Amino acid sequence: MTQFDRIIQLLELIRQSINVLAERQALQTLVEIADEQLRIMQHLKEQSMSYGSKHNAESTLMTKQEVLAYLNISDSTYKRRVREGLLKPMRLGGGDVFYKEDLAAALWESKRKGKI
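The structure assignment produced for this chain is given below.
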């Protein structure tokens, strides 16, 4: 569950609680405010998912060994490209992992050098 999901869930609970007490006009205004906050948060979540992250549920994670084979490079070349910033691994469970779509520049470099 993302942070947005937790906030949305909390706002929904607040709205439900206020709605129970909304027999007076003043509380109805609070319900309307809670509804608007909920709409705004859902909109922000949608925007974040479409603009903030280039990875989706279908994104492929690759291990270091898979990247070596995919790019047809040696371990020393891998280390050099990490040092130069051409490869930017994520640390997950003590090992390097990559999203396949993040390897575009490195793949182009391997093709340019005739490795692939």
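Interim note for the steering committee: The mean pLDDT is 78. The chain has five helices and three strands.
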